[in-house]
Design brief:
The protein is mainly α. It has a domain of about 90 residues. The protein is built from 10 helices and no strands. Helix 2 packs antiparallel against helix 3, helix 5 packs antiparallel against helix 6 and helix 8 packs antiparallel against helix 9. About 20% of the residues are buried.
Length: about 210
């Protein structure tokens, strides 16, 4: 008897499953097709991204070769194009190259390129913080107090690994201006920063004991 009931229940369940598939045939087919299209779109996008990355790599390396051949105007144009492509790898490298080789003389133009990386490029948070720090370094000699702090405030008010570097830069800036009270304040902040760079902690301690002791 129990065996017969089990057989009946199994048949009933199978009929229900069969009915479900028949009644929802169009929906199931549409779902499968949509899933396949999503997979194809994803892999197509990945192939496209890899291709674009390869093109940027080739363009960057070609520009380096052209620089060695003294074709500076073409190098500047290529590097600017790479920066404007907003690639997480080659856009920062292109800007660093322009700065390291002193190829752009206009400070505003350079800062505009920095801002493309900082504000418009998808970057890892700490990579972006490093670029902010590099922008501050670039501007340190030319900026006034407010301008320098405006650049560095996102780091100073964060828990970034670059926070202590930002504090040290501001402390040295004020020290160079003979504003020792402000300089001392920022050196002390380095000592209170949890993830501070230990080399900077030691340098800050030296400054405080040797040059800024009361």
């Amino acid at each position: 008897m129990d065996e017969e009931i089990t057989i009946i229940n199994t048949k009933t369940r199978n009929e229900k499953i069969k009915s479900f598939f028949i009644e929802n045939k169009k929906l199931l087919i549409s779902t499968i097709i949509a899933f396949i299209l999503i997979l194809l779109s994803f892999y197509s996008y990945q192939i496209y991204k890899d291709h674009q990355k390869k093109l940027l790599s080739d363009k960057y390396n070609k520009a380096i070769i052209e620089f060695k051949d003294s074709n500076k105007s073409k190098v500047i144009l290529s590097m600017k194009e790479i920066i404007n492509d907003r690639d997480s790898t080659y856009s920062p490298l292109a800007l660093y190259f322009l700065i390291d080789q002193n190829l752009i003389k206009n400070n505003k133009e350079t800062n505009d390129l920095f801002d493309i990386l900082i504000n418009k490029t998808s970057l890892d948070e700490e990579i972006k913080n490093l670029i902010i720090y590099k922008k501050a370094l670039y501007n340190a000699e030319l900026s006034n107090e407010n301008e320098l702090l405006k650049i560095l405030n996102p780091l100073i008010n964060s828990k970034s690994v670059w926070k202590s570097h930002a504090l040290y830069l501001v402390a040295e800036y004020f020290y160079s201006k003979n504003e020792k009270k402000k300089s001392k304040e920022f050196f002390k902040k380095i000592l209170d920063t949890k993830n501070a760079n230990q080399n900077l902690v030691k340098e800050a301690q030296k400054r405080l004991v040797r040059d800024l002791s009361d």
